[in-house]
Specification:
Length: 402
């Protein structure tokens, strides 16, 4: 460092006063440089310059980030952790900790707002309760990191590796995890409001009880994960693939599932009020007891799905495929089933009053105790449909020869 300081000081003084280029000597004394020179008249000149005030731009290159100071070393970080008083939180706010090996480091409760950790390895680090608002953690390895209760608002977590990471009770409001890989991550009761999970791979992850309002999972792949009793209002799952995902008792109102693939998902007792499932694949989905009022299922494939005891008042099933599905003891009143296929579907005990089944296909469907009060059955295919015990069929509209 001394040579750098010498270089910077010599260059600066030479530019300011060409007459004192010769005879310059530098004597370091603690944090002060004692500089002596002799001018052309033989008079002694003593100049005191504080190192912290000297620009080293002449000898030290600008950090690659261009936004942060020169990165600290692992040793410097370790010394800072050891030196801090036990009663005080470690202060690393705005520091450049990029591309470092910080495994097993203790950052519990640390002040790390706007810290730059891009590309660092934080495996097994303790960051419980840490303040990381606006922090840059893109490309970091967060395997088995404890981030429970941490403040990660507006943090950049793109392309991170989260394996066994603990985020229970954490605040990720506005954070971006696009392109990240998550496996066995826990978000129990976390605040994940308006967070981005675009094009993210999520496996065996638990979001139970979390607030995920306004979150985007667009184009993501989610396997064997849980959203039980979570708040997913106004979320976006469009073009995502969900395999064996549990949404039981979650609030998923006004959400978007355009062209989303659901493979053996559990959607029991979930509230999907006013959500959109246009062109989605919902084969074998379990909607038992779910609230589907005002939901749009246009062109959705719901074959062999379970809609037992659902409430789907005013729901739109235009061109939907519901073949071999179970729609028993459900409320489908005022629903739209134009051109939908309900072939060999069990409709027993379901209320279709005031529904529109114009041009629907009910071939060999079971309509035992099904209520058709004021139902539009114009051009509906009823070949082989079991109508012996149907209710109020005489009050339906559109059946030829009735």
């Amino acid at each position: 460092m001394r040579s750098r300081y010498h270089c910077a000081i010599k260059s600066a003084l030479a530019r300011e006063n060409p007459q004192i280029r010769n005879g310059l000597s530098l004597t370091p004394r603690s944090d002060i440089l004692h500089i002596k020179s002799v001018n052309s008249h033989g008079c002694g000149l003593v100049i005191f310059l504080f190192v912290t005030q000297i620009s080293l731009s002449a000898c030290v290159s600008t950090p690659k980030s261009g936004k942060f100071e020169k990165p600290l070393s692992r040793l410097q970080v370790a010394r800072a952790i050891i030196a801090k008083p036990k009663t005080q939180a470690l202060d690393m706010e705005g520091k450049n900790l990029s591309d470092l090996n910080l495994t097993h480091m203790d950052f519990q409760g640390a002040k790390m707002n706007h810290v730059y950790l891009k590309g660092s390895n934080l495996e097994n680090a303790n960051m419980k309760g840490a303040q990381l608002q606006g922090a840059v953690l893109s490309g970091t390895d967060l395997t088995k990191v404890n981030l429970s209760g941490a403040n990660l608002r507006d943090a950049d977590l793109r392309n991170t590796e989260l394996n066994g990471t603990l985020l229970d009770g954490a605040d990720l409001n506005g954070a971006d995890l696009s392109g990240a890989t998550l496996k066995q991550v826990s978000f129990h009761n976390a605040n994940v409001f308006a967070t981005q999970f675009v094009n993210t791979n999520i496996d065996e992850t638990d979001f139970s009880g979390a607030v995920l309002r306004g979150v985007s999972f667009e184009k993501s792949t989610i396997n064997n994960s849980r959203f039980i009793r979570s708040d997913l209002s106004e979320t976006n799952f469009s073009y995502a693939t969900l395999r064996k995902v549990e949404f039981e008792q979650a609030q998923v109102t006004r959400s978007h599932f355009k062209k989303t693939a659901f493979l053996r998902c559990n959607l029991q007792n979930t509230n999907f009020h006013q959500s959109i499932f246009n062109e989605s694949s919902l084969q074998n989905a379990n909607f038992q007891g779910a609230t589907l009022d005002d939901v749009n299922f246009t062109e959705a494939n719901m074959s062999q799905s379970n809609l037992d005891q659902v409430s789907a008042i005013r729901a739109n099933f235009t061109w939907a495929i519901l073949e071999n599905a179970t729609i028993t003891n459900a409320n489908m009143s005022h629903g739209i089933f134009t051109n939908s296929s309900l072939r060999q579907t069990d409709l027993s005990g379901t209320n279709f009053s005031f529904a529109n089944l114009n041009k629907a296909d009910l071939y060999r469907a079971n309509a035992d105790r099904t209520d058709f009060t004021e139902t539009n059955l114009a051009d509906t295919n009823l070949d082989g449909t079991q109508l012996q015990n149907a209710k109020n069929l005489e009050l339906s509209r559109g059946i030829k020869g009735k």
